[in-house]
């Protein structure tokens, strides 16, 4: 099969001869090998880390700078994105050699051992992400000298020992996420020097000592979350009431003593939790910020009366004062400024106090829950209508939720994992979603329901998507409280995301490029699951590389019919190879299809890619005048991804390709039809008779497939260049169309229309002819793209 052969030869000629200069820095290669060596990778995700060069051959989840460094001429590792790969083992000290790395992501694996101090040598490091492992040991003080560190996420490990004082040097660090470890000792007062810190999440550790009043000097602090530590003997520093930037103060179960904090001077405070301590004295009566949603003073030893300042807070969702010694009367108008439309509700928990009377009769709106059991007021017989509030109430938790999509829309077609886009402007349209497991680490509210629409707006716009493209499929509260969600992201008005968009969205999440929101707080990425885009598309369809190859081949040779047959063959073969890799050789000579000389090829290809190719003198076995080529261009340019993004974007090239498609569709002789053919097909299409011009040989394919193929050809042939799809879109659509072709597993490939005189057996003996070059052992061109891209060079076996 000439065209595909050309491509294959081109591509692998390139891969086999990389230019010596364009390689990854050798010490970084060694470091990656060492990192791989000290990890255990039961699922083999890192198998590609044995092959070729990390940056040139595209090792899995190793992201390199896209250009070589000016100072040393090497490629360098920019990111390790090893999120959720089931890795165990330890982190190799050689990590420190990746000194230009910006993102080190080992989140949600089962890695043990400690964080190597050599990480302190990665001076360009911006995101240090190792949360959700089983790391132990203490925090190396070397990390404190990383000048570019923006975010340190070590949460959900079992890291012990103190927070090093050296962390006070992290001038650029905004996020300390260290919750759920075994950190001990005092919070170093030196941390008050951190000029950029916004989120300090140290909850669920074993921190002790006094709470440093100095933290009030942090100029940008938004969240202090220290729940479940043990600061016994310490009180809440009054200076915390002076942190005017603060949005959330959470000090639950910290063994704190002394008076309740006066936070009335914090203008935007939205969330205050000082429950489960031993606070004494009265609750300060200053007016709290109107932003406040959650006030929790429960389980302390507070006395005095309930301040009138709790009444009239317009955003309040929960006021928990239970299990104290509060006396006086039950406030009767806490809800007076709350607008209960839009699913709002309010919980007032005053249980187990010493409240003795009502100031006024209680006549709350339906969405207010008042809990009074365990107060003397419940015993007094003369209080009307109070009994309903005096039943001992179970703990009230905010609800979760999920979208029931079952009845809203008719099911989508099942040939792709399509799902209904429930909020699409075109209702019930279908798309293949990306799935994201996502968790709000420190939300600024108690009940999510009233904020759901706002969240949708926040996250979709943060991702530069239309709001309808994001669906919060389920949400549920977890300990913390944290809010876990599953999200679906849908493509905009199309069935599929293109690969660039998938990558962009992944990067928005894994690079923490979505701006934080005051009300929703920091997020955790638990999983980014491309679903079909990663697994399905490579298993079930041709790889990008193969398709690009085919498109190029089709384009270069315009040997139209044979291309389609090749595609179908490849597809069938690919399905078979996944089962058995001992494929037979396939005869590729196709009856009635013209062979092309190099001149014909270059004439008909608009100088497309062949301009970079040089015809060689005939190589062994090829007939005179036929094409054998090697790559003359710069290394890298035949990289399939590069083609997709750079080379194949010229929409005027797309026109010629569209003509080829239409020729294929109609079964006309290749080349030379140009606009007449296009006009003919357009006319047939407009009169709804598209099938009337379709070649009978296409009849084996499903009608929808043929129609989409026709539509694609026509779009490519639009007069206005801008109306034509990009080459990347063409490739995607081709891929989608091949997906729709019937699964022909088990059908002998010989049944495809091709030269009936060549059986596999007889063709395999052919040698020395041009025919021989048209054939190669398909079993080596596995379709799982990763092989094409990872530097394993399938051998071409001309016969
Ligand atoms: C390389 O990456 C930088 C950003 O890191 C980007 O601005 C630039 O366009 C990229 N260059 C190429 C050739 O992709
Ligand atoms: C960090 O690099 C310096 C040299 O750049 C070297 O002297 C030092 O030993 C390295 N430290 C670690 C912990 O690898
Ligand atoms: C975490 O480490 C501490 C000691 O550092 C140990 O007491 C504790 O059992 C460990 N917890 C887990 C869950 O492994
Ligand atoms: C951090 O900033 C302070 C004040 O700007 C400066 O004195 C200090 O040297 C900086 N520290 C580092 C490690 O850059
Ligand atoms: C953090 O630790 C607390 C207390 O052990 C536990 O209840 C909570 O589930 C943990 N949270 C996470 C996210 O691991
Ligand atoms: C917590 O810290 C205290 C000292 O403050 C220590 O005695 C205790 O063993 C630590 N507990 C754990 C589980 O690390
Ligand atoms: C809070 O700030 C004011 C003015 O900035 C200052 O007078 C007061 O002493 C501070 N209070 C505390 C407890 O630090
Ligand atoms: C609020 O009250 C209305 C009317 O009783 C009810 O339909 C709605 O479910 C309530 N909402 C919440 C969140 O409790
Ligand atoms: C509804 O959602 C489920 C789970 O996310 C999915 O499997 C199903 O295909 C969806 N149904 C429709 C009609 O989109
Ligand atoms: C979605 O597609 C429409 C056209 O179909 C376009 O106008 C709009 O800008 C796109 N929106 C986004 C966020 O890409
Ligand atoms: C706080 O309230 C102001 C208006 O008073 C509003 O602009 C801001 O968004 C609110 N912040 C939060 C976190 O709700
Ligand atoms: C690298 O390979 C992966 C799959 O192995 C693929 O998803 C990705 O697009 C490739 N990247 C480049 C730049 O070739």
Automatic annotation (TrEMBL):
Q: Which UniProt keywords apply?
A: ATP-binding, Glycoprotein, Kinase, Leucine-rich repeat, Membrane, Nucleotide-binding, Receptor, Repeat, Serine/threonine-protein kinase, Signal, Transferase, Transmembrane, Transmembrane helix
Which stretches are transmembrane? Answer: 546-570
Q: Which GO terms describe its cellular component?
A: membrane
Principal location class? membrane
* Family annotation (Pfam families): LRR_1 (PF00560), LRR_8 (PF13855), LRRNT_2 (PF08263), Pkinase (PF00069)
Protein kinase domain: residues covered = 453-737
* Comp. bias regions, Low complexity: 756-769
Region Disordered, as annotated, extends over 745-799
Q: Where in the cell is it found?
A: Membrane
The protein's annotated catalytic reaction(s) are: L-seryl-[protein] + ATP = O-phospho-L-seryl-[protein] + ADP + H(+); L-threonyl-[protein] + ATP = O-phospho-L-threonyl-[protein] + ADP + H(+)
By what name is this protein known? Answer: non-specific serine/threonine protein kinase
State the organism of origin: Triticum turgidum subsp. durum (Durum wheat)
Question: What high-level taxonomic lineage is stated for the organism?
Answer: Eukaryota, Viridiplantae, Streptophyta, Embryophyta, Tracheophyta
């Amino acid at each position: 099969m000439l065209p595909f052969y050309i491509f294959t030869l081109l591509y692998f000629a390139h891969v086999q001869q990389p230019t010596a200069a364009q390689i990854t820095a050798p010490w970084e290669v060694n470091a990656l090998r060492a990192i791989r060596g000290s990890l255990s990778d039961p699922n083999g995700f890192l198998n590609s880390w044995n092959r070729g060069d990390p940056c040139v051959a595209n090792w899995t989840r190793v992201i390199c700078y896209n250009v070589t460094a000016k100072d040393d001429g090497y490629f360098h590792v920019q990111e390790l994105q090893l999120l959720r790969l089931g890795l165990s083992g330890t982190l190799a000290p050689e990590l420190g050699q990746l000194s230009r790395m910006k993102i080190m992501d080992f989140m949600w694996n089962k890695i043990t051992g400690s964080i190597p101090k050599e990480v302190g040598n990665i001076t360009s490091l911006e995101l240090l992400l190792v949360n959700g492992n089983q790391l132990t040991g203490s925090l190396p003080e070397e990390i404190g000298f990383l000048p570019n560190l923006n975010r340190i996420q070590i949460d959900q490990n079992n890291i012990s020992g103190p927070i090093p004082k050296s962390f006070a040097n992290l001038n650029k660090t905004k996020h300390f996420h260290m919750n759920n470890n075994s950190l001990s000792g005092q919070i170093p007062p030196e941390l008050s020097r951190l000029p950029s810190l916004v989120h300090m999440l140290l909850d669920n550790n074993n921190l002790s000592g006094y709470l440093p009043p100095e933290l009030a000097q942090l100029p940008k602090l938004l969240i202090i979350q220290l729940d479940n530590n043990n600061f016994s003997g310490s009180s809440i520093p009054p200076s915390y009431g002076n942190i005017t930037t603060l949005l959330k103060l959470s000090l639950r179960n910290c063994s704190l003593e002394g008076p309740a904090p006066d936070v009335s001077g914090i203008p935007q405070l939205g969330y205050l939790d000082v429950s489960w301590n031993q606070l004494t004295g009265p609750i300060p009566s200053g007016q709290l910020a109107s932003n406040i949603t959650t006030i929790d003073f429960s389980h302390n030893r507070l006395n005095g009366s309930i301040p009138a300042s709790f009444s009239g807070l317009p955003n309040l969702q929960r006021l928990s004062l239970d299990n104290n010694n509060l006396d006086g009367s039950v406030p009767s108008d806490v809800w007076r400024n709350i607008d209960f439309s839009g699913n709002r509700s309010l919980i007032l928990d005053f249980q187990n106090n010493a409240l003795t009377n009502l100031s006024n009769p209680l006549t709350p709106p339906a969405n207010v829950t008042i809990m009074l059991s365990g107060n003397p007021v419940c015993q007094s017989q003369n209080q009307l209508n109070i009994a309903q509030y005096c039943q001992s109430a179970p703990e009230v938790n905010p609800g979760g939720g999920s979208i029931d999509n079952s009845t809203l829309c008719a099911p989508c077609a099942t040939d792709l994992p399509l799902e209904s886009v429930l909020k699409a402007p075109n209702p019930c349209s279908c798309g293949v979603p990306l799935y994201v497991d996502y968790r709000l680490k420190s939300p600024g509210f108690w009940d999510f329901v009233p904020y759901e629409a706002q969240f949708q707006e926040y996250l979709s716009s943060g991702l530069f998507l239309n709001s309808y493209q994001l669906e919060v499929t389920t949400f549920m509260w977890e300990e913390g409280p944290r809010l876990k969600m599953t999200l679906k992201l849908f493509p905009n008005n199309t069935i599929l995301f293109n690969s660039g968009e998938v990558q962009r969205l992944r990067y928005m999440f894994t690079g923490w490029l979505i701006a934080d929101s005051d009300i929703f707080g920091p997020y955790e990425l638990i999983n980014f699951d491309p679903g079909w885009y990663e697994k399905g598309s490579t298993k079930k369809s041709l790889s990008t590389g193969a398709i690009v190859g085919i498109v190029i081949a089709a384009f270069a040779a315009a040997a139209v019919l044979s291309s389609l047959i090749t595609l179908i063959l490849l597809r069938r073969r690919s399905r078979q190879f996944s089962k058995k890799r001992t494929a037979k050789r396939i005869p590729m000579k196709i009856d009635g299809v013209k062979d092309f000389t190099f001149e014909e090829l270059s004439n008909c290809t608009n100088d497309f890619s062949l301009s970079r190719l040089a015809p060689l003198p005939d190589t062994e076995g090829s007939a005179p005048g036929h094409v054998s080529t090697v790559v003359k261009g710069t290394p890298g340019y035949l990289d399939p991804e590069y083609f997709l993004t750079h080379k194949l974007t010229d929409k005027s090239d797309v026109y010629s390709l569209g003509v080829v498609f239409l020729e294929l569709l109609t079964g006309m002789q290749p080349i030379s039809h140009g606009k007449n053919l296009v006009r003919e097909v357009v006319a047939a299409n407009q009169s709804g008779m598209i099938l009337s011009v379709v070649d009978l040989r296409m009849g084996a394919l499903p009608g929808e497939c043929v129609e989409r193929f026709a539509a694609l050809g026509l779009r490519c042939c639009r007069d206005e260049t801008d109306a034509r799809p990009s080459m990347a879109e063409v490739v995607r659509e081709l891929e989608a169309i091949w997906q729709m072709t019937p699964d022909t597993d088990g059908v002998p490939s010989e049944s495809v229309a091709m030269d009936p005189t060549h059986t596999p057996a007889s063709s395999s003996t052919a040698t020395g002819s041009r025919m021989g070059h048209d054939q190669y052992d398909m079993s080596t061109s596995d379709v799982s793209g990763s092989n094409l891209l990872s530097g394993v060079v399938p051998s071409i076996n001309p016969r």
